Amino acid sequence: MTHVVVLHGGISAEREVSLASGQQCVAALREAGFEVTAIDVGPDLAATIAAIRASRPDVVFNALHGRFGEDGCIQGVLDWMGIPYTHSGLRASALAMDKVAAKAVFHAAGLPVPAHRLLEPEELEADDPLPRPYVVKPVNEGSSVGVHILRKGDNRRAEIAQGWRFGRTVLAEEFIPGRELTVGVLGDRALAVTDIIADAGEFYDYSSKYAEGGSRHVVPAAVHPTIREQAMEVALAAHRALGCRGATRADFRYDDTAGEPGRLVLLEVNTQPGLTPTSLLPEQAAHAGINFPALCAWMVEQARHGS
């Protein structure tokens, strides 16, 4: 019997999300017939390595989210240890987590990305970096942590800049009106297009993602056929451009405010898609006829180490 160690928790701002993902994955993997050991990853890396070694796994299921979990750090450790693991390798994980580097890759591949600018918090405090409305976000965080939309008349710019706690850089990005779409990818297959309707806030923020009733997911999305096809093609192209493997999820903004077919813009690729009860990838997999235990089993079957 294949022994799978599930890493969850971690030390990022997304720890609670990761714990929820991990618990669901542990149950699904056991249902799929695997021997499973769960490891709650904390700040002591040596203790995590020791726990992995003591468990002697055949495969590590990476259910970590955010920094140190999906940015290439734990991937490098597992590469060093020679243990196969789920999801993307070190290079693709690091590229995808760095939003500026990922945009450069997408632009080089001819994929549609929003206008953006990288700046320091002091520059944001001094002046608007882009015409309003625009979005400010951390370069290396996920789950919409630290994301703000600044519209005309909004006087929070200085407050946001002074309270910035996500390093010395701020990513400013043009705000794309319209709808939030997402596409899951499994290997060489784009699954579906989901329309995300945030009920808990003005955009698909942390609360909308993880709070019960925070958002509604419509799959398949009711969008123009041209946009549906484009979203599926771009998601797969972005997955390949970054060098991803296993499962990813591409997030888009779709501006249909002036009518269809409208403008589709790629925001980012998530190399560690959420696997919680409200997560998007499991919903898309189910829509494609893949139940959650089968999805987790597929991830284990695709596991390897190295790039």
TrEMBL record:
Keywords: ATP-binding, Cell shape, Cell wall biogenesis/degradation, Cytoplasm, Ligase, Nucleotide-binding, Peptidoglycan synthesis. It holds the Pfam family Dala_Dala_lig_N. Its cofactor is Mn(2+); Mg(2+). Cell wall formation. Residues 103-301 form the ATP-grasp domain. It is an enzyme of class 6 (ligase). One of its GO terms (molecular function) is ligase activity. Its EC number is 6.3.2.4. Belongs to the D-alanine--D-alanine ligase family. The keyword Ligase applies. Its main location: cytoplasm. It catalyses: 2 D-alanine + ATP = D-alanyl-D-alanine + ADP + phosphate + H(+). It is found in: Cytoplasm. PROSITE patterns: ATP_GRASP, DALA_DALA_LIGASE_1, DALA_DALA_LIGASE_2. Pathway: Cell wall biogenesis; peptidoglycan biosynthesis. This is D-alanine--D-alanine ligase.
